[in-house]
Amino acid sequence: MAAAIEAAKRGAEVLVIDANEKAGGQLFKQIHKFFGSSTHGAGIRGIDIGKDLLKEAEDLGVEVWLNSVAIGLFREMTVAVEIGTDDVEKKVEMIEAEKLVIACGASENVVRFKGWTLPGIMGAGAAQTMINANRVLPGKKVLMIGTGNVGLIVSYQLMQAGADVVALVEAAPKIGGYVVHASKITRAGVPIYTRHTILEARGEGRVKEAVICEVDEKWQPVPGTEKVLEVDTIAIAAGLKPLAELAIMHGCKSKFDPILGGWAPVHDENMESTCPGIYVVGDVTGVEEANTALEEGRLAGVAIAESLGKITPEDASVIKADIWQRLDGLRSGPHGEARMKAKARQLESFKEVTNA
């Protein structure tokens, strides 16, 4: 949406394709208030930021196709789009464009353990969708696996929705997310078990119990430390990986980086991939924060407007420099330093590939 807005406000004709019933991505599941600077919506709930983006895009004449899936890229700049939710009425349209932006986001990682396919076991993102988008409680007694920001935020939102969060489990020696999120949970009396993992889910027809245990320095279960928790839901927040298949299948060069979640397409300072005219933004280039995705989208939108002759290189340079300054600010500090280095490696990889 950010890329669409920046390109459209400078005169580009823009079409947004979204598989969901509403455009705006994860923002419409984020009912908590953002924090940081006023530039990045501090004190505003994610859902309201999403509404503002949709309104701005609509006012600028951005066309949005919902319930539409990009199923492939063909020739240089043609996208195959499957439209509709009814198998009988589905159709495929071939869309030609001068520039393409791939902003597919990320998908949740899976943790496999005995009984992991029982009903009631789901990704934390699925649980968040159920409570915040669909207003459905996934269960009454929930165990959360993982204490990154997703695990912490969704746990608190489950509590707000009326669920009893029995515990959070983290294999690492300390929580992975921000302390401000963890504090809200511990103040409510919910235990966070660090250096623990899940061994087994038990139940007939649905999960009824979870068996957790301590892990040693080599991340192996410690015999005799098992704890049995009565739960009807297990939510897994074990990190995300970029949904980069669309870019990779088209030939955009990629690089594996564990800091960014796995394989992701490399790009230049304008977010342009190794396939000229195809830009990659947000978590598809490496898993970060919502505000980082917004800024990368803005960067691509301005760069596209420049390449289409809608804005002068001089004006574009000033705007892009300002966006990069904000991106560097978002990636500063203990939580962002590793990602800043990883993104720098992406830029270097792009130069290596294109020079070769």
From TrEMBL:
Q: Which UniProt keywords apply?
A: Oxidoreductase
* Molecular function as annotated in GO: oxidoreductase activity
Q: Which Pfam families match?
A: Pyr_redox_2
Domain of life the protein comes from: Bacteria
Give every FAD/NAD(P)-binding domain span. 1-297
Residue ranges of the TM segments: none
Q: Which InterPro entries match?
A: FAD/NAD-bd_sf (IPR036188), FAD/NAD-binding_dom (IPR023753), Metab_Enz_Cyan_OpOx_G3PDH (IPR051691)
Database matches in PANTHER family: ANAEROBIC GLYCEROL-3-PHOSPHATE DEHYDROGENASE SUBUNIT B (PTHR42949)
**Protein name stated in the entry:** FAD-dependent oxidoreductase
